[in-house]
Amino acid sequence: MSSINQANHYEGLTLRQAALIAGFGYLLNPVTTAEFSIMPKLVIAGNIEQTAQNIVAHGGLFVGAIFCYLISFIGDVVIAWALYVLLAPVNRSVSLLTAWFRLMYTAVALFGLLNLVTVYRLLHTPDYLTAFGSGQLHAQVQLLLNSFRYDWSVGLVLFGIHLVLLGCLIYRSGYIPRILGILLVIDGLGWMIDSSRPYLFPNAHLGFLFVTFLGELFFMLWLLIRGWKIREPAF
User: Fold this and answer.
1) Would the pLDDT of 188 be above 90?
2) Could you tell me the pTM of the whole model?
3) Among candidates 31, 78, 72, 19, which has minimal Cα distance to 224?
4) What number of CA atoms fall less than 13 Å from residue 103's CA on the CB side?
5) Which of 35, 166, 190, 232 has its CA 20 to 30 Å from the CA of residue 207?
6) Of 78, 92, 81, 80, which Cα lies nearest the Cα of 173?
């Protein structure tokens, strides 16, 4: 039995299975539903009073957003595992490091998500309004909503490092197109720069970096369309 086959037997997954698990992990990730559909309806920039009213009136929708984020972050753990198996034949140590950066991102993001849970509790527990008054309560809600974004931004810097390492592994793999590795390195650098903006250059306009984020989309499509055809590499 070759070393590659031994590795796959040890992991319990073939490279094809790992590719498809990662691909479906990306596809079924509901973070875009929370980010671009639910939260914009509830959180009104510069108007915390209206935001608080929206969350109180549509508590179920807000909880739905929290669960979308939660499912997404749990999915990131599965994707990290699948990608580790997929790229372990290239360099097991670097593949493990790559997975750890995604797991660290997930841990930070989950910690930040607790801020949204606290927002829900504050606005749906009448005693807090009595204790704080509307002004202080709204200030607390604003702080927590901002903390979620800032914590997540820190996590996304780690996520960017994960993508850069992932891209380097893919470039060297020989069984995944090198262009995808290049796109993921660019994608990772884009995330690192954009996510550092609140701390390093808060007034900069970096909307153009959105185009760099398409690397993961192309990678997901390749995993779903071509991942089941991966051949075991001969090293």
Assistant:
1) yes
2) 0.89
3) 19
4) 13
5) 166
6) 92
In terms of DSSP H, where are the helices of the chain?
3-11, 15-27, 31-33, 39-42, 48-57, 59-87, 92-123, 126-173, 178-200, 214-226
What does the alpha-carbon distance between residue 137 and residue 123 come to, in Å, rounded to a whole number?
Answer: 8
Closest CA to 184 of 128, 106, 102, 113: 102
Rounded to the nearest 5°, which phi and psi values hold at 203?
-95, 0
Report the Cα 148 to chain-centroid distance in Å.
14
Cα(190)–Cα(150) distance, integer angstroms: 17
Integer-rounded Cα Rg, in Å, for the chain is 20
103 residue type, one letter: L
CB 154 within 8 A of CB 180: no
User: Each residue of 72-93: pLDDT tens digit?
Assistant: 999 999 999 999 999 999 999 9
| DSSP label at residue 230 | P
Give the distance between the most distant pair of CA atoms in the chain. Answer: 70
What pLDDT, in 10s, does the model give residues 54-63? 999 999 999 9
Sorted by sequence, the CB contacts under 8 Å of residue 123 that are 6+ apart come out as 52, 55, 56, 59, 137, 141
Q: How far apart are CA 140 and CA 119, in angstroms?
A: 8
User: Is 192:158 a contact under the CB 8 Å cutoff?
Assistant: no
